[in-house]
Amino acid sequence: MIERELLVSNRLGLHARATAKLVQLLSGYDVNATLTAKGREINAKSIMGVMLLAAGHGTAVTLRVEGGDEAAAADAVCALFERRFDEDS
């Protein structure tokens, strides 16, 4: 199991487009993934779950991945957060 602390740094937070990118990215990996924020833990492969976090700009989230591709999945998610979900022009 790998656990990483992340910060939502894109301007709009985990809105629909950013959430879809995250879920689509994780769907390519053979892992169980959760995000924890504001006292809630959700399935990070679920669009509705991630949306229910209501994680806005500046929210700290914990990513936990477990499974055969956990290192690659964690690295890819961290890179997506660092790129601010490719929203900055």
From TrEMBL:
Keywords: Cytoplasm, Phosphotransferase system. Transmembrane segments: none annotated. The keyword Cytoplasm applies. It comes from the Bacteria. Its main location: cytoplasm. Signal peptide: none annotated. Residues 1-88 form the HPr domain. It is found in: Cytoplasm. Belongs to the HPr family. This is HPr family phosphocarrier protein. The lineage of its organism: Bacteria, Pseudomonadati, Pseudomonadota, Gammaproteobacteria, Lysobacterales.
